[in-house]
Design goal:
Length: about 350
């Protein structure tokens, strides 16, 4: 007779799966987009429109999943979905503009997310977590930032991008808890709105960014293949993003994002003959050390909290449900692909 795995082991395996899925799909999509968008590749320079394609395919997958009964559809007010989609699209557009004008803006994401979670949810961070986050930001800054000059236009775009991205990532977790929807259900509801708006506005935004018209692009079979590959990876990336933020915190997701940056730099050096300088190596090492320290600090913080409040992992399924009912909460289970929800 097989021994059943403890709930804590299942949770760890599930969490590692979500992390791994997000890292692999994110790094994969960046590599595919590099081949698709680079001048030496297929020169498809329409990033915002491509994101519209991504959400279109994601919306289609969500529609098929709902129709086949693989996921349940719970009610989320339309105004919440519209507001979230507007903020998410502002994040995408603002980041495209911001990174075109200056590269330093992405390093502000973790500090801003920390401040916003403190303001909106009263969340506090230990001294060890703050130190680890600082080390990660400094490390990634050393190996990625190429321009410290920020003009007025770049500063404005950076502010819009940082605030909207931070708010979007915090909102994913809060919406899932507030309306008891799984990560995939929430994504299925927001993807069609984002797809429609980005497909309409994307070509205009891309023309402003690149000076090129989408209608003038000559689509080859190779470019079409990489667009399909990019869209397929985007579905996995989007689902895993919602999974990660729903399970962890927006700050942890930002640390994960910088881990992906390190992976992209390394793969770029291995696969695309990108230049790897001593500065890059130093930054990568520092960032990895920061991530290890961050993981350790978060684990220590969890153990300290578990001494005060018993974690759900230590409770039986029935006890967990009773505890949630007492607190006025209902559990949110992420969709299990291939398993019909009756």
């Amino acid at each position: 007779m097989e021994e059943r795995k403890s709930p804590s082991v299942n949770v760890v395996v599930s969490d590692l799966g979500a992390w791994g899925m997000n890292i692999i799909s994110s790094v994969g999509i960046i590599m595919a987009n590099k081949q698709l968008m680079s001048p030496s590749g297929f020169a498809f320079a329409f990033a915002t429109t491509l994101t519209g394609f991504h959400f279109s395919v994601t919306a289609l997958v969500g529609l098929v999943s709902n129709a086949a009964g693989y996921s349940a559809s719970k009610h989320v007010p339309m105004w919440e979905l519209l507001w979230f989609s507007i903020v998410a699209n502002m994040s995408i557009t603002g980041m495209n503009f911001s990174l075109m004008l200056n590269t330093i803006s992405k390093l502000s994401m973790i500090p801003v997310v920390c401040v916003m979670e403190w303001i909106l949810h009263g969340k506090h961070y230990s001294k060890e977590v703050k130190m680890a986050v600082t080390v990660v930001v400094v490390g990634v800054g050393i190996c990625t930032v190429t321009d410290l000059n920020v003009n007025a236009k770049g500063f404005l775009c950076a502010c819009v991008a940082i605030l909207s991205t931070s708010f979007q990532q915090i909102s994913i977790g809060s919406l899932q808890k507030r309306y008891s929807v799984s990560s995939f259900e929430l994504l299925s509801k927001t993807a069609p709105i984002q797809a429609l708006s980005l497909l309409i506005l994307g070509p205009v935004i891309d023309y402003y960014l690149t000076g090129k018209l989408l209608s003038n692009y000559k689509l080859s079979s190779g470019a079409f293949f990489f667009i399909l590959l990019s869209c397929s990876l985007a579905v996995v990336c989007n689902v895993s993003q919602y999974l990660c933020i729903g399970r962890f915190s927006a700050v942890s997701f930002q640390v994960l994002g910088h881990m992906k940056t390190v992976c992209v730099l390394t793969l770029g050096w291995l696969l695309f003959d990108s230049e790897l300088t001593l500065k890059n190596i130093l930054g990568v090492v520092l960032a990895v050390v920061g991530m290890v320290v961050y993981s350790s600090a978060v684990e220590v913080e969890k153990k300290a909290n578990s001494k005060i409040i018993p974690g759900k992992e230590s409770l039986s399924e029935e006890d967990s449900q009773l505890l949630e009912e007492e607190n006025g909460e209902s559990g949110v289970n992420d969709v299990e692909l291939g398993k019909s929800i009756g």
